[in-house]
Amino acid sequence: MAKPVQKRKTKPSKTAASVVWFDVPADDLGRAKKFYSSLFGWKFAKLSVAVADYWHIDTGGKDASPDGGLLPRMHPGHSITIYVAVPSVDKAVEKVQKLGGTVCKPKTAVPHMGYFAIREDTEHNTFALWEMNERAA
């Protein structure tokens, strides 16, 4: 007689800490669009968000491939920023600070999409934390 199949207990799904978006700052947006479209075939479309002159970058990859944004450079040290998915920006921010990271930009809402916060790691690299939340306002 066969043994009854035991079901494994599964943990609730957790947001994978994977790269989900990137921002490319530029001094000359037209020049940057020409460069990246010629190099990678990326397509650009104007996107209305809190940052003036922000462009969505369609990388053309599969659904799991992150897209990004092109925006005016905000300060001389402004470099490409990756966005990493987290279940909670607030909890991740606390953890970053406990591990020695610092604040560059506090938690900010992107209406009807989610929240992000920009941090700096212990090696002075900036990165963003991203929490999907359609109720963000």
Question: Can you give a write-up of this model?
Answer:
This protein is 16% helix and 38% strand. The relative contact order is 0.18. The chain has two helices and eight strands. It is of the alpha+beta class and 137 residues long. The mean pLDDT is 88. The chain has an eight-stranded mixed β-sheet. The longest helix has 12 residues, at 29-40. It is globular and about 40 Å long. The chain has helices at 29-40, 89-98; strands spanning 19-26, 43-47, 54-58, 67-72, 81-85, 102-110, 114-120, 126-132.
Fold topology:
Elements: E1 19-26, H1 29-40, E2 43-47, E3 54-58, E4 67-72, E5 81-85, H2 89-98, E6 102-110, E7 114-120, E8 126-132
Parallel strand pairs: 1-4, 5-8
Antiparallel strand pairs: 1-5, 2-3, 3-4, 6-7, 7-8
List keywords for this structure.
137 residues, alpha+beta, 16% helix
In short:
The chain is α+β, with helices and mostly antiparallel strands and 137 residues long. It has helices spanning 29-40, 89-98; strands at 19-26, 43-47, 54-58, 67-72, 81-85, 102-110, 114-120, 126-132. It is built from two helices and eight strands.
Strand order of the main beta sheet, please?
Answer: 2-3-4-1-5-8-7-6
Query: How much of the residues is beta strand, in percent?
Result: 35-45%
Major pleated sheet: 8 strands, mixed
Shape: globular
Structural class call reads: alpha+beta
> Gap between N and C termini, in Å?
59 Å
SS field, number of helical segments: 2
> Which radius of gyration do the C-alpha atoms yield?
18 Å
**Helical amount among residues, as a percent range?**
10-25%
How confident overall, as mean pLDDT?
Answer: 88
Output the helix-strand order.
EHEEEEHEEE
Oligomeric description of these chains: single chain
**Count of beta strands:** 8
**Weakly predicted, low-confidence segments:** none
